[in-house]
């Protein structure tokens, strides 16, 4: 944050100094003598311009005069990232929340430290064939019937961001901030717009930690749960969650 504040005041000051150097160069050159009618009039701007260019040395490189970062940083989703789903059901007469988890998640976040509001997020790809619950039989049903993720065509769930709203103008290390990401969520061969409210914390200049969630309806994505005697009821609503750790590349 101090770098951003210093740059805001340093750059206007440099511009003022450059203008002053040009004015001083013009004044110290003295008034141009009156040229004879038959002699060419010397160019008045060439000499002062050269003086101005040489009289003002380039500032020494340091953290206060250089940009806060030489361009945007790209953060890669890395170890510690998980995609999850949660759905409620009645199993053997008991209420149960089924949770499926996978760590096979790919994606990138590109951040300009000088302008966090210009953040971009790449498509997020989740390997649905790796979603694992507390039951191997349920895992098989998800892969073969619900998501059909054992087929190459339906292996991945993808989320392609189309809009990011609510990003702050500045970010402080250690302080969480909120925003929302809207994009196209594709499950099997159905794509619909979804919005994920996000909470993110920059734990350092090179690491972001965050999470977000959204609720979808099974019917919207043409998903159905196989009927089995032990399951009396399954909710139509499914919560999709992403908890991520991203490190600068």
Largest beta-sheet characterization:
13 strands, antiparallel
**Number of DSSP helical runs:** 3
Per CATH, the superfamily of the largest domain is Lipid/polyisoprenoid-binding, YceI-like
Give the structural class.
alpha+beta
- Name the CATH architecture of the largest domain: Beta Barrel
The CATH class of the largest domain is Mainly Beta
Q: Write down the overall mean pLDDT.
A: 81
Q: What is the radius of gyration?
A: 30 Å
> What is the total number of structural domains?
2
Descriptive account of the structure:
Helix content is 19%, strand content 40%. It is an alpha+beta fold. Strands 1, 2, 3, 4, 5, 6, 7, 8, 9, 10, 11, 12 and 13 form a 13-stranded antiparallel beta sheet that branches. β10 and β11 form a beta hairpin. α1 packs antiparallel against α2. It starts with a helix and ends with a strand. The N terminus is likely disordered.
Topology (SSEs and partners):
Blueprint: H1 2-28, H2 46-55, E1 73-77, E2 82-91, E3 94-102, E4 105-106, E5 108-111, E6 120-121, E7 124-127, H3 136-146, E8 156-165, E9 177-187, E10 190-204, E11 207-217, E12 231-234, E13 237-248
Antiparallel strand pairs: 1-5, 1-13, 2-3, 2-12, 2-13, 4-7, 5-6, 7-8, 8-9, 9-10, 10-11, 11-13
Question: Would you summarize the structure shown here?
Answer:
By secondary structure, this protein is α+β, with helices and mostly antiparallel strands. The chain contains three helices and 13 strands; from the N terminus they run H-H-E-E-E-E-E-E-E-H-E-E-E-E-E-E.
């Amino acid at each position: 944050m101090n770098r951003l504040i210093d740059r805001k005041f340093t750059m206007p000051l440099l511009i003022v100094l450059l203008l002053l150097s040009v004015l001083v160069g013009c004044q110290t050159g003295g008034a141009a003598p009156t040229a004879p009618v038959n002699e060419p009039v010397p160019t008045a701007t060439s000499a002062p311009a050269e003086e101005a260019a040489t009289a003002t040395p380039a500032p020494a490189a340091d953290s206060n005069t250089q940009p806060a970062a030489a361009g945007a940083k790209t953060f890669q989703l890395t170890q510690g990232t998980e995609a999850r789903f949660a759905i409620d059901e009645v199993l053997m007469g008991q209420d149960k929340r089924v949770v499926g988890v996978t760590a096979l998640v790919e994606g990138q976040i590109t951040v300009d430290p000088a302008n966090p509001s210009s953040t971009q997020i790449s498509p997020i790809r989740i390997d649905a064939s790796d979603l694992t619950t507390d039951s191997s039989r349920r895992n098989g049903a998800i892969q073969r019937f619900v998501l059909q993720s054992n087929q190459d065509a339906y292996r991945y769930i993808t989320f392609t961001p189309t809009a990011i709203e609510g990003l702050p103008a500045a970010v402080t290390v250690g302080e969480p901030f909120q925003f929302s990401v809207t994009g196209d969520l594709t499950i099997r061969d159905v794509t619909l717009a979804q919005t994920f409210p996000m909470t993110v914390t920059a734990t350092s200049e090179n690491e972001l930690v965050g999470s977000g969630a959204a609720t979808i309806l099974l019917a919207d994505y043409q998903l159905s749960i196989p009927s089995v005697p032990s399951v009396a009821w399954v909710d139509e609503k499914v919560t999709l969650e992403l908890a991520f750790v991203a490190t600068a590349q």
